[in-house]
Design a protein that fits this description.
By secondary structure, the chain is α+β, with helices and mostly antiparallel strands. The protein contains five helices and twelve strands. Strand 9 and strand 10 (210-212) form a beta hairpin.
Length: 228
């Protein structure tokens, strides 16, 4: 006579759940071991193809340096005896091209508003930025003009501009109305600009006057007197 073992469905269900859970736990544990082994193996591989900066500050410094504009191609006549070197006004020379580029630069923003009595007021052309040489447009932060008892001062403030790698702050263009008292001055941000002195040449003009950039360590500037 056969004995029939009666097992409730609830017990069968519980047994299936426990068996399945144990199997999944075993698989999960095995997967975790495999992932740990793969992570350790990957961490031991050398990293190639990506140059890592030493630190964020160094990376930022490199980015800023690369975004600076050197203005030798615009104001390089300063070092050619302030433009009195014959090569600066010899047609076809590289130095002459720099001189012409600077003349065009001045004309892009310098202007005069004449009055009925013949006098005038100096001003900055409102559309000057669109007329600036494309290569140097980003280097010009702002241009302003000031008239005082001495004369007319045009100030060109620079943004990330250099001269042979030395940081510039501004360029001043000065003239005294009704006279030949005229000068242009480059202002540097740091005192180390004096290291450029050996690059700046001097020459004697037709009146046997010595011409060339005058270095002033106190104001961190190089001035070119352009009068007669």
């Amino acid at each position: 006579m056969k004995t029939i073992l009666k097992v409730s469905m609830k017990s069968v269900t519980l047994l299936v759940v426990l068996t399945t859970g144990a199997a999944l736990a075993g698989c999960s544990e095995m997967t975790g071991v495999m992932n740990d082994s793969q992570a350790k193996a990957t961490s031991n591989l050398p990293k190639q193809g990506i140059a890592q900066p030493a630190n964020k500050a160094a990376a930022l410094s490199q980015t800023v340096a690369s975004s600076k504009t050197d203005l030798v191609g615009l104001v390089g006549w300063f070092e050619n005896s302030c433009g009195f070197d014959p090569v600066s006004y010899t047609e076809g020379t590289k130095e002459n091209q720099v001189q012409k580029r600077f003349d065009t630069f001045q004309e892009s923003f310098m202007a005069k508003q004449y009055k009925a009595d013949g006098s005038y007021t100096a001003y900055v052309k409102p559309d000057y930025r669109s007329k600036l040489p494309a290569n140097y447009r980003e280097a010009v932060k702002n241009i302003s003009v000031v008239e005082d008892s001495k004369g007319v001062h045009y100030y060109v403030d620079f943004n990330n501009a250099t001269y042979r790698g030395y940081d510039l702050s501004r360029l001043e263009l000065f003239y005294q109305p009704e006279s030949d008292y005229v000068y242009d001055t480059l202002y540097f941000k740091n005192a180390n600009f004096v290291e450029l002195k050996s690059v700046f040449k001097t020459t004697r003009d037709e009146m046997d006057e010595l011409r060339g950039g005058e270095f002033d360590a106190n104001s961190r500037s190089v001035m070119c007197y352009l009068g007669l």
